[in-house]
Structure formats: structure tokens, C-alpha cells
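Feature request, filed as a ticket because there's no other form

It would be nice if the structure record came with a short human-readable summary line next to the C-alpha cells. Right now we just get the raw output. Example of a typical job, pasted below so the devs can see what we mean:
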Amino acid sequence: VQLAVSLFTLLKNAWHGPVHVMTGDDQAREIVSRFTNSVSPLGGSLTVQDVRYDSAKVRCYSAKTWSQDWSPFAKTIYCDCDTVFLRDVEEVWPRKDELVLTQFCSWSCGTPKSKIMNGRVGKWLREAPAMVRIALETPRPAVNTGIVGFTKDTAFFKPWRELCAKAPKRFIGDETAAQVLIANIGGWRVVGSAYNTSAKLEKITEVTRVVHGHGAKFFTYPPAREFWLRHFKEAAAADFGGIRSWAGELVPELKLYLI
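Raw output as currently delivered:
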């Protein structure tokens, strides 16, 4: 359901072009296939790809570092599905072959005050001790990898994938590994949190472009839930992907808004 709202708002407010959705199981693929006829009227086109991996050995976070290979495009903006698009995201398109990351709130890393992010980076001390020591002493923005821009030739992916492979089941390993790497290597750029606004920790303003639920925040945090439901109702009113017929089956509490 979150993917439906994300895709609907993306095509309505931010992008009128091809979209490639990566699914991890048969149920997801079948649901995504329902969106096909609803995408064209909004100016988009849709392709779907199964990306299977051994979830007993690799968590979805680390699997994200393979998105460069999975994408069919020369240039890609990768988006988590728990997102709502309000405006275009042009600044996330990569220049040349850089990796484009988004800042997480106004948080930082590598300073005495950035205790939370320093703690997350420190979890990589066993796998990459030299890089972690540099990362803990290099002030820089805290980043989130829910919105990422890259090309087929973005060199950042190789060390990113290699580091994640050393702890493939680590919670938000993709994000924290990127946080380690940006203190040690170049080839990246960070755009402001307006392109990846936290649904819980930040205010939504006239400059906000993407709101990110970061997991279940659109369901568990009341102000974020109210915001998300407004966009869900719009998608339901348009019956995007036939959402009225199946959203209540997946999320029973949404039946109230489908009457």
C-alpha cells in the first residue's frame, strides 16, 4: 500500500517518465502489475523486476547496494517505497558519475555532539577499523539512503557493496556503511533533507520535496499518519492500481477510508 501511494505521488507531483519497480516475492510482483494501466494517464511507464536474494544471509539494507546492477537505466534515482513525493527531485539526478545522497534531518556525524550517528558508524569498527577511525574524526552531514542518485558507472558502489558484504545482516547497514565511506572516499554529493524529510522528526514545509516514513512511521506516528492518509485518499479516489479493491485486504484499518 505504501508503494502505491509513493508511486501515485511520484507520477502526480514529481516525475513523468519510466519507473522500474524491484520486487522480492510473488505477491509483491502481482500487486505491482496492477499499477500498469494507472501509470500511463499520469505520464509514466512501468516495468517490474524480481530481485531475489537469500534473506537468511542478507538483509534488504545490504541488498540495496546491488541496485546499480538491477536498474535498467543509465541514470537512476532510487527511492524507498515508504515515501510521499510533493515536488520534483531534480537535484538528486547525478552529475557525471557521482553518488547523490540526502541529508538526514540536520544531524551530523564525526563531531563530539553527533553521538547517535557516531555510535552507528562505530559498529563497523571490526570490519573497517582504519576507515571508522577517520569517519569518527571527520565532520560531515548525516545521510540517509532512502533516496539515492547514481549512474551505471558510479564508482562508489563497489566499495559500498564490499563493505556491506562484511556484515550483510546489519540493521540499516547500507546507510551506516555509506556514512563510513563518505569520510574516506570521494565521488559523492549530499543534497538537503528537503529531498528526504523525516515524517517524524522534521516539519513539512513549502520547500519539502519528499517525505520519508522510515519504516512504519506513516502508521505509528499520528501526525505522519494524518499526512500519509491524505495522499492515500487521493490515490484511492483515483483508484490507482485498483487500490480500492485490495488495500483493505492488506491493511484492514484502511477499509474505513475506502467506503
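Something like this underneath would help us a lot:
The beta strands are 18-23, 45-50, 75-79, 83-85, 99-109, 140-151, 188-191, 197-198, 210-212.
The chain has twelve helices and nine strands.
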